[in-house]
Amino acid sequence: MLKRLLGKTPIDVWVIKQVDTDLLHLCGRATLEAKPSRKAVLAALEGGHFSGPVKMATGGVVLNARLFAALVPVEALQLLPDGQARWQGRDWSIAQVPQRCWTFQGRLTVQPNPAAGPHALVSSEDVTDIRQRVEGTTPRRPGEVVFRAENANEDDPLLAPKHDPSRGPRLGAGREWRRDGD
To answer: H or E element: which one contains 65?
Structure first.
C-alpha cells in the first residue's frame, strides 16, 4: 500500500517488438520500474521515449527498452479473440514473438502457427538480407557443382605448404621418385 502511495508500484506493459501496417509483433507482458516516478514513466511511454530496463513476465529476463518498437501500458491495449488486438483506436492482427527473437535487431516476418489455433501467427527472424548477401558472394547457383582435375589446386601458391629452410630439412626430403625406375 505504501508503494502505491509513493508512486513506486511497477508499471505493467505490453511489449511490442515490431509494428507493421496491420500487424503487431507482440512479445508479451512486462513490468517497468516506476523511477523516478510513476507519472514520469507513464509520460515517457506516452511520448514513445521511455528508456530503461524492461522485466519480461515470462522468465523474468531484463532487457533494454531500445530493443522494442513500443511499450504500451496494459490498459491501452486490449486483446480480442482470433488473434486480434485493439490499440490506438484501431484493430490489429497479433503475431506472437518467441523469446529467441526478443533481442533480434533485424526485421521480423510472420507465419501461421497451426499449433496455437487457426488464426494464430508467430514471428520469426527475417534472414532474407543475410541470404542475399551470402548468395551475392557465391558465383554458383544453388545445387550447381563444379568439377575439376583431382590435383587442380596443387600448384596454387596460396594452398601449397611453404617450406621454411630455418626449420631444417623438409619432411620426406630425399624420397622423391627416382628417374631410373628403381
So the answer is: none
Q: Which long-range contacts (CB under 8 A, 24 or more apart) does 83-86 make?
A: 83/117, 83/119, 83/120, 83/121, 85/24, 85/26
Burial class (CB in 10 A: 0-12, 13-18, 19+), 82: exposed
How far apart, in Å, are the Cα atoms of 103 and each of 27, 53, 62, 64, 129?
11, 13, 11, 9, 18
Question: What is the mean pLDDT of the segment spanning 158-175?
Answer: 58
Residue 36 has pLDDT above 90, yes or no: no
Rg of the chain on CA atoms, in Å: 29
> Terminal CA-to-CA distance of the chain, rounded, Å?
100
Q: How many CA atoms lie within 13 A of 168 on its CB side?
A: 2
Put simply, whether the predicted model's pTM sits higher than 0.85 gets the answer: no
| Cβ within 8 Å of residue 68, ≥6 positions away | 15, 16, 17, 27, 54
- The pLDDT assigned to 160 comes to 54
- Side-chain-side CA neighbours of residue 28 (13 Å): 16
Q: Going by DSSP bridges, is the β-strand pair 23-32/53-56 parallel, antiparallel, or unpaired? A: antiparallel
Residues 6+ apart with CB under 8 A from 13: 29, 30, 31, 32, 45, 54, 71, 72, 73, 74
